[in-house]
Amino acid sequence: MKITIVGTGYVGLVTGTCFAEVGIDVTCVDIDKEKIENLRKGIIPIFEPGLEEMVHRNISKGRLHFSTDLASALGDCEVIFNAVGTPPDEDGSADLQYVLSVARQIGKHMNNYLLVVTKSTVPVGTAQKVKEAIQAELNNRHANLPFDVASNPEFLKEGAAVEDFLKPDRIVVGLESTRAEEIMRNLYKPFTLNGHPIIFMDITSAEMTKYAANAMLATKISFMNDIANLCELVGADVNLVRKGIGSDPRIGNKFIYPGVGYGGSCFPKDVKALIHTSEEYGYPLRVLQAVEQVNDDQKSVLFHKISNYFKGDLNGKTVAIWGLSFKPLTDDMREAPSLVIIQYLLDAGARVVAYDPVAMKEARRIIGDKIHYANDPYEVLQQADCLAIVTEWPEFRFPDFMKMKNLMKQPVIFDGRNIYDRMEMKKNQFDYHCIGIRH
Q1: Domain 211-297, CATH class in plain words
Q2: pTM (whole model) above 0.85
Q3: Which of 159, 168, 217, 384 has a CA that sits 20 to 30 A from residue 378's CA?
Q4: Out of 231, 266, 386, 434, which one is annotated catalytic?
């Protein structure tokens, strides 16, 4: 089987590479010529564990190809995945211009039956718009060619995307014909042999499933952050509360860690888009509106702790930051809490020095020379008035505390991810502030 993936961003590149890994002939198409040339050389545009090696392997095996020519890629393929971006519009809705542009190109150039699968995260009703766009172009050509549309939302976690695709919790497919179901069942057979479920449903339900899943996870995060802030006020320990509720199987222990808010390319965008969809239908999602507000507020919590500690005067203070990406094991800084915290610190007159294991290049692109960058986690501490931990990278979990104390002006840590034990920090003579525990 030969398939085409349109879009070589996070979702498209992981999807295409993983399909190639199980022996499928894959062509990934993108309009960015420079990106395609780099991918042909095995230079990938994102950091994702295991992906670069897999790209190299499948290029060398002749199973993974990269092109800027969608028309030629459609020549003998049976399935095309639309994985282009759906950035948020000014009103919070998902911008579908790229998705529909690809649909029109498919209608202009297809020459045989095609199953057109939307992989991008799109609002409910998008499949119908895709179908209409393809059919309109076929009508313009006076071409009577059969095609099906389907929805196959991705459930990839950045930092574990390759593993998630190869060993999925579930595969959700929305479709409207038995022919499309047979093709998708055959395509995903290598991933379901070990019992990973494939769930078929109507297209509208599949589109809603993706948004509902991300909205639920975002809700758990904001709920726990709200509880953490209340814990500080009443004198409870949020880490103990988390363990107490997480042991209940109805709640579970995932996504209930307090911190400085969620970021990334999915949760913020998808929560906004689902809120916008609900408003279009006259049914405001009040829970999600609160989830979004809590998250926006949570991104400033660490700054306020720092500001309060220094009695509102941060002018000339040096604040060291560990972690810039929105989560570990990725260089993605979209909607990252670090960006909000850094801007607050700069506005308050602080000098900011930062370190991240992989996101330094991306940080320089976004922030520029407004802050200083260090080469390792200890260099960033030299003469620092305090340390703010924003991303819980594994290498931050067991540092040399004595070395840290010797480098800093004063041993003060603001832990935005609660990665240290309070008693241990007291033993090491650090003034330690975290989330959800009264200092």
Answers
A1: mainly alpha
A2: yes
A3: 159
A4: 266
